[in-house]
Amino acid sequence: MTNATARRGIDELRGHRSKMFSRSHKIARKLVMRQLEKLQLGCLRIHEGEHCFEFGENPDFASTVADIHVHDFAAYRDVAFSGSVGSGEAYMSGYWSSPNLTNVVRIFVMNLSTLDSMDQSQSWASKMALRAFSFLNRNSKEGARKNIGAHYDLSNEFFSLFLDERMMYSSAIFPNDGYSLSEAATHKLKTVCDKLRLKESDHLLEIGTGWGGLAIYAASEYGCRVTTTTISKEQYDQAISAVKKLKLDGRVKVLLNDYRELNGSYDKLVSIEMIEAVGHENYADYFRLCGKLLKPDGLMLIQAITIADQRYELAKNSVDFIQRYIFPGGGLPSTHKIMELVARHTPINLVDFEEIGHHYAKTLKMWRESFWSRIDAVRDLGFDERFIRMWDYYLCYCEGGFMERTIGTGQYVFAGPEYRVDSPNE
């Protein structure tokens, strides 16, 4: 065979491949469009160059309108074969964009049957890959450190670009629309401490330090002792530094330990949005330990992001975009599941509950605005455009979920069996 003949053969093969890819994209597009025809609530507009296709309600009357601009037909392939995770991957790759990304998420949440149908149509290979990913990221002690590090150890500098000055990476609480993110984050801390009825003589255990914001606030504002633990080295170093700088060493003890290594007895216990990293398989042990660590007359507050009760089993047995790219090994409990576990594995009882999911939607919106306002600094830290699109998708994905209440955030206050509201200690 001559070189010319070989080159001609290679060119023909490339041309054949190009036609195959083009054909596969067209098939994928047809499959996705067929799914979108099932949308009933909201209006989704798909823009392909000068062409626009509308799905759902009339945009003049729809409560929510969203636009998707397709830049590469590979987007349809990713969605058709990998469902909602594929949609996020296509966004990360720049195959599609939207001027109102949160609304895109909201429309699919409003039409959950369509979203579920798209996920159920995932290819066998895609489903198996996600299941393998989930299995490999189980939250053993070693696995938990790796999973936490994958997110929280991106760098303290990165998180400082969009969080408030206390570095609170959890839902703020806005008493009114005039509150800034910083004011609302501090108000949340006060709310937590007041619900725990913290006082100077208390020893508070915090599971999940973050960057030390709550531990420092509780010790400085309420005078109590605090023991707090994290398994993120970046967070640990930041918290240690902040505690020393404020001369709170005598009241705040920061540990670099897994929650399963804790022991002792505490007047109060708090855990803010840490249970999401525990893993479904470890929930029972987590609550059992909390019940043992809390004194019989103590109070415990857990702030948890939750999935709707009706979708808990489905979510438990699947891997979504957040688990795949943001919080490996993570998972959301439901309120029903929390109450079931507490009743079965602890002596404590619920004494107060507040749903604050609508506050989280606003918190996420502010984080995203701050993120984009500092985007040059994000790039200066070495994060590329794919990471930036991933983070943008993550923030909008969560905001849309909270706005449509498919996920929520609850503050659960539990009391030990000997706790009494009219106790002399209170």
Characterise this structure.
Belongs to the CFA/CMAS family. This is Cyclopropane-fatty-acyl-phospholipid synthase family protein. Keywords: Lipid metabolism, Methyltransferase, S-adenosyl-L-methionine, Transferase. It holds the Pfam family CMAS. Its EC number is 2.1.1.-. With 426 residues, the protein is α/β, with parallel strands linked by helices. It is built from 17 helices and eleven strands. The strands form two sheets. A seven-stranded mixed beta sheet has the order 7-6-5-8-9-11-10, sandwiched between helices. A four-stranded mixed beta sheet has the order 2-1-3-4. Strand 6, helix 10 and strand 7 form a beta-alpha-beta unit. The chain is globular and about 70 Å long. It starts with a helix and ends in an 11-residue tail after the last strand. 43% of the residues are buried.
Give structural attributes.
426 residues, alpha/beta, seven-stranded mixed sheet, four-stranded mixed sheet, 17 helices, 50% helix, 17% strand, globular, disordered N terminus
Shape: globular
Strand content: 15-25%
Task: Give helix % range.
Answer: 40-55%
Q: Can you count the helices?
A: 17
Q: Regions with pLDDT < 50 over 5+ consecutive residues?
A: 1-20, 123-130, 132-137
What does the average pLDDT come to?
A: 88
SS elements, strand count? 11
Pfam families: CMAS
Keywords: Lipid metabolism, Methyltransferase, S-adenosyl-L-methionine, Transferase
Family: Belongs to the CFA/CMAS family.
GO molecular function, one term: methyltransferase activity
